[in-house]
Structures are given as structure tokens and as C-alpha cells.
């Protein structure tokens, strides 16, 4: 009986360690610096990311992040998860680009702006395409935090 209990306890503990490794924090996304790069196409300088070693280690892996859901298109076409609510997000000048993640959902979510969600997807690091965020979660799903 005790042996069975210890086996179940060990398996549960081991599983929780594996799951916890995939849960990123906003501090993890802050492992980036920016340098100005001139764009011939747009005729302006953009701050382009230089990703740190820690965040690069998650590239191509399934990760989760908890944050505020934002529908920045207003029409259900462009979704973000943000460290901050809409009133103080990156676009309002209250934070940096490392505080938002573009989310490409498998299915259109029913979330409303500023609801707190946990989103899971494959992390892609975008260092070149200024029409998308620096961080992108592809093939994503999400759940509402209550």
C-alpha cells in the first residue's frame, strides 16, 4: 500500500515539474534587448529585438503564458496576450514590446478584452517582420482564469 502511494506521489511530482517548465512568466519574455535598424521599405528606424539565450531556448517549444487577452483589431482578427490590461499596454506607451505576445489560435476564442487567460502554443521568435510582434504563439489554445 505504501509502495503504491509512493509511486503515485513520485509520478505526480515528476509530471508537475515537467508541466511547470513550460509555464513562462513575463520576466522570461523580458530576456531581450533592442537596437535601432533602418528599414529601406518604410524609410524609418525600427527597434529590432536581440533575444537572450534563455528565451531562445524556448523557440519552437510549446509554452504557456498568463496575461490579459486583447483583441486589438476589434473584429476578432488580431489577438494578443499582454502583461498589462488594454489601458496600460504596450500600444498606450505604458510598457515595452516584450510585454505582449501575438497569438494565432487554432479556433477563434470567445474571450473578451482584458479577461485574464492562460494561452498555450508553440513559441516563435520574430526578429525581422515588423508587421508582427516579436513573440508569437502559433497553433494556440486558451482558457479563462477565474
What is the CATH superfamily classification? Answer: Protein of unknown function (DUF3299)
* Helicity, as a percent range: 10-25%
What is the count of structural domains?
A: 1
Low-confidence stretches: 4-21
Biggest sheet architecture: 5 strands, mixed, barrel
The level 1 CATH classification is Mainly Beta
What is the 3D shape? globular
Mean pLDDT, all residues? 86
Spatial order of the strands in the main sheet? Answer: 3-4-5-7-6
Q: How are helices and strands ordered from N to C?
A: HHEEHEEEEE
Structural class: alpha+beta
Our measurement of the CA-to-CA distance between the termini, rounded to an integer number of angstroms, reads 37 Å
CATH architecture: Beta Barrel
| CATH level 3 topology | OB fold (Dihydrolipoamide Acetyltransferase, E2P)
Q: Give Rg in angstroms.
A: 18 Å
Number of helices: 3
The overall strand count is: 7
**Strand coverage percent:** 35-45%
Protein name: DUF3299 domain-containing protein
Keywords: Signal
Organism: Poritiphilus flavus
Signal peptide: 1-20
Amino acid at each position: 500500500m505504501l509502495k503504491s502511494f509512493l509511486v503515485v506521489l513520485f509520478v505526480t511530482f515528476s509530471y508537475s515539474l515537467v508541466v511547470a517548465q513550460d509555464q513562462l512568466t513575463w520576466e522570461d519574455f523580458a530576456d531581450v534587448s533592442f537596437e535601432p535598424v533602418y528599414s529601406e521599405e518604410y524609410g524609418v528606424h525600427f527597434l529590432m529585438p536581440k533575444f537572450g539565450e534563455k528565451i531562445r531556448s524556448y523557440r519552437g517549444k510549446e509554452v504557456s503564458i498568463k496575461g490579459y487577452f486583447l483583441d486589438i483589431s476589434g473584429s476578432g482578427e488580431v489577438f494578443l496576450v499582454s502583461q498589462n490590461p488594454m489601458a496600460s499596454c504596450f500600444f498606450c506607451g505604458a510598457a515595452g514590446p516584450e510585454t505582449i505576445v501575438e497569438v494565432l489560435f487554432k479556433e477563434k476564442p470567445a474571450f473578451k478584452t482584458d479577461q485574464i487567460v492562460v494561452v498555450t502554443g508553440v513559441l516563435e521568435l520574430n526578429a525581422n517582420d515588423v508587421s508582427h510582434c516579436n513573440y508569437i504563439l502559433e497553433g494556440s489554445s486558451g482558457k479563462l482564469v477565474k
